[in-house]
Design goal:
By secondary structure, the protein is mainly beta. It is built from two helices and six strands. The protein has a six-stranded mixed beta barrel. A hairpin with a 2-residue loop joins β3 and β4. The longest helix is centred in the C-terminal third of the chain and has 6 residues. It is globular and about 30 Å long. This is Ripening-related protein 2. Pfam families: KWL1.
Length: about 110
Amino acid sequence: MAVLTINSLQKGGGKSSKCDNKYHSDNTPVVALSTGWFNGEKRCMKNITIYGNGREADAMVVDDCDSTMGCDNHHDCDNNIVDASKAVWKALIVPKKQWGQLDVFWSDATA
């Protein structure tokens, strides 16, 4: 079980990604995973499949969401976060007014 959140990794919207030190368009399905799931960069540039809203979507892991500090005014990443670009929310066909948090499952993509 995970919580899908929304994040921007595009230039001007967020920071460059940890995996390739590049920015990624909000129109590209990319995610940042909580520290434990990021697994010391072992999932970098690999796809995961996200299951939510009765649908599934593949996204590439490009960053981590630092969950080692817990949640406070400066850290908003718990240990069960899949922080996703707008493209992932669109692929899951979640109405825009509901973007923010969604309970999901995910797995490493096969293929």
